[in-house]
Amino acid sequence: MSKKIVVTGMGMISAIGLSIDEAFDSLMNEKSGIDAIKYLNTVHKNDFLLGEVKLSNEALFEKLEISQTESKKHTRTSLLALSAAREAVANSGFESENWNSKRVGIISATSVGGMDKTELNYGERNFSSGFLKTHLSGDSTDVVADDLNINHYRTTLSTACSSAANAVMHGARLIKQGIIEVAVVGGVDPLSKFTLNGFNSLMILDREWCKPFDADRKGLNLGEAAAFLVIESEESALERGATVLANLSGYANSNDAYHQTASSPEGEGATISMSKALKMSGLSPDDIDYINVHGTGTNNNDLSEGVAMKRVFGENIPPFSSTKSYTGHTLGAAAAVEAVISILSMRNSVIFPNLNFSKTIEELNKSPVTEVKKELKISHVLSNSFGFGGNNSTLIFSNNSQK
Description:
The protein is 32% helix and 18% strand. The chain has 403 residues and is an alpha/beta fold. The two termini are 15 Å apart. The relative contact order is 0.18.
């Protein structure tokens, strides 16, 4: 009998809040975290808007009660990851000191790893900073695993902007195969000059607030964040009397390999990932109550995703919105951030809006939700995350009362 995978904990730190509660307040009050650059040291300080976490590294050390003498061991990546992962474990009802009765694993995701620290120290060959040891993608995973006493399984995934969705899938598969019973899954990415300069070279950054799914969209705003979920088998959750926040009812990944950085104009990979996730969940397209779209605000992405939604849902596309207009595009963390937002939407019977929208894309003739919609029946939410290289991932979360 196939094991049902449930979500029992969530944690997040992003431009819209240092916790789940703060993020929810921002979402409900349509308060974007995208603003002028304050913390990232870049020559583009006056050129772009970013979704920065509103704390310096020094303030993050203080928040996490980590001594500055331990700074060599940490990057901004690991600090953000620790904040979100600790919150997720506390939210789940587990105590990280006492995983003894469970086989626990961590699957984290990132795009740039410890690049934020490396770029500050490499040019000056400041090897005493410890950047050689913290540069690797898996460094933040190891930091979190050690902090939370997770010893049974750990790995790090990097598939661009779909990374955290694939971390969720990998954790679910490990649980279903009986390799682990509980998984801390999610992703983290800090802002860095490397990232900002790279996306600027692709000419897909908006110099003002991004406008996902708007006919006059000009590009994306980058952001930084960390978000983690605690997932486990339903049997494990019931055994310990945990509160189930959502069922992970379907998921799928595809790769259309269309282009290094662009999505297929026909939405081929996105169509496949959504269709396969629906098939796995046993749901029909009409069962989906809300779509948290990938919705970066670039010309190519939004049109491609819109075409894919029309292929899957026909003319009955469910209400949808891109919450990247709140957080910015958080790259390797995006799918976990939006998984958290999707579950908040479902549990609070609300759809959070697509900010800054004004004009419908002519080819789609379908507009996103543009204001907070309350008191809705939301039983099933589909969340899309698409990465460079054509890596497309879809997660479906369902209300726990839905069998």
